[in-house]
Design a protein that fits this description.
Strand content: 15-25%
Number of helices: 5
CATH architecture: 2-Layer Sandwich
Strand order of the largest sheet: 1-4-2-3-5
Structural class: alpha+beta
CATH superfamily: Ribosomal protein L30/S12
Radius of gyration: 12 Å
CATH topology: 60s Ribosomal Protein L30, Chain: A
Length: 111
Amino acid sequence: MTPEAAQKIVKLLGLGARGRLVVVGAEQVRAAAKKGKLSLAVVASDASENSRDKVLSVLKAKNIRAIEGISAAQLGAAFGRESTAAVGVLDADLARGIQKAAHESTAGKIV
């Protein structure tokens, strides 16, 4: 993912956090996905294999798209944290904006 696309996605996630349109952390993402509340997830490219597997398995089971390619430190910075493994997007419009930013990046990976 290009640095510009990653920065745009992080900014959108930060705006979503202020509007309470996102959940932060692997466990919160898994819980929201299980309840059917997620529109999209962003999973850190450098998250531990265990965290990635746990999150991605629930997302796949619930047919929720995930974007990869942003580091845990970049994701965490949007929320005043050192790092975070995953962020879940609750709002469909915000999810569309993030997907558009990821598609604009030729190296962005949506799974």
